[in-house]
Design goal:
Elements lengths: L2 E3 L1 H7 L2 H17 L2 E10 L4 E9 L4 E9 L6 E9 L5 E6 L1 H19 L6 E5 L3 H13 L5 E5 L3 H11 L2 E2 L2 H5 L3 E4 L18 E4 L12 H6 E6 L2 H7 L1 H8 L8 E3 H5 L12 E5 L4 H18 L3 E2 L1
Parallel strand pairs: 1-6, 7-8, 7-10, 8-9, 10-11, 11-14, 12-13, 12-14
Antiparallel strand pairs: 1-15, 2-3, 3-4, 4-5, 5-6
Helix pairs in contact: 2-3, 2-4, 2-11, 3-4, 3-11
Length: 310
């Protein structure tokens, strides 16, 4: 039986806490070698792209793909996750995945903040106030309950005011948002929006935009000041993370100095050595997370009788 889940189904089935649990579990299974992940590839369309990414999570028992067509702007992007069982030829689910992707991207930063933010971090700064930034704030608040204050910046005043009203955040200037204990960059900018000189000692930076090799959210000084740099996947970062590719090509950093967050989650590396360290998590987004959170949605749907059989 194949179950079809709509965006409304996903919204009703999953919470921010569910997403955090699913993504942290995915990191643990990645570290254990139970997950095979394939980086995203893109095909050009007449006025957009078709992107495909895939993973097989043998411990979880599901494999699948996330596919999306993007034609510029949030209203012109459609995501879908397909899940197969790993022990038999069975298509388990087809899931509309705009909300699913938003949840898992936020959850990854939440996991990073849980393990890499300085002890007792109280402030979060967000540069960019679009759709993805919303789950960044929700997930980091859930993962780091000591966070008391959220400051946000974006270029459009009306959008900033709406974001702050809905998420209980404070409008700030770009430099002020960057001077917090946890800093998220969630933009579509092709040029750096965060300068390393703005960061305070002890900051954790979660950079979630710029997932192509020609775009950057971070300047070189961020990398120069960082005591610890990690990403979600070095294999994928080498293909599409301009925030790492360019500084490494310029000799600012070496790939040998870049870790994967899964190593921190399972205790293979410490990540933060002191409260004054500046730490960077570069997130590109993994199909492994889509399989994990898709599986969580599927299991809850079966338990609650939600979805439509195909």
């Amino acid at each position: 039986m194949t179950l079809y889940l709509t965006e409304e189904d996903v919204e009703a089935l999953l919470t921010t806490e569910d997403a955090l649990e699913a993504v942290e579990g995915s990191f643990r299974r990645l570290a254990a070698g139970a997950v095979e992940n394939r980086p995203r590839y893109r095909l050009r369309l007449e006025h957009g792209i078709l992107a495909v990414m895939a993973a097989a999570d043998l411990e979880l028992g599901y494999a699948g793909t996330k596919t999306y067509a993007a034609f510029g702007g949030l209203d012109n992007v459609r995501f879908v996750v397909q899940l197969f069982e790993t022990r038999r030829a069975e298509l388990a689910a087809v899931i509309e995945a705009n909300r699913l992707g938003q949840l898992r991207t936020g959850a990854a930063s939440g996991v990073a903040a849980k393990y890499l933010a300085r002890t007792g971090a109280k402030s979060l700064g967000v540069i960019g106030c679009g759709w993805q930034a919303e789950s960044q704030v929700a997930s980091i608040r859930a993962a780091v309950p000591t966070v008391e204050r959220v400051l946000a910046y974006c270029r459009t005043r009306e959008r900033l005011e709406d974001f702050c009203r809905r998420l209980d955040a404070e409008p700030a200037e770009q430099r002020e948002a960057a001077a917090q204990e946890i800093v998220v960059t969630a933009t579509t900018s092709e040029d750096p929006v965060l300068r390393g000189e703005w960061l305070q000692p002890g900051a954790l930076v979660c950079a979630i935009g710029a997932n192509d090799s020609s775009s950057r959210e971070l300047d070189n000084v961020v990398l120069e000041r960082a005591s610890f740099v990690c990403c979600d996947s070095k294999e994928q970062s080498k293909l599409e993370s301009g925030d790492l590719i360019e500084p490494i090509a310029q000799g600012v950093l070496d790939w040998l100095e870049v870790h994967e967050l899964q190593e921190v989650v399972v205790g293979e590396v410490a990540g933060r050595a002191s409260d004054d360290d500046i730490v960077l998590f570069k997130s590109n987004g993994l199909a492994a997370w889509d399989v994990a959170i898709g599986a969580a949605a599927l299991e809850r749907a079966r338990d609650r009788g939600v979805g439509r059989e195909l």
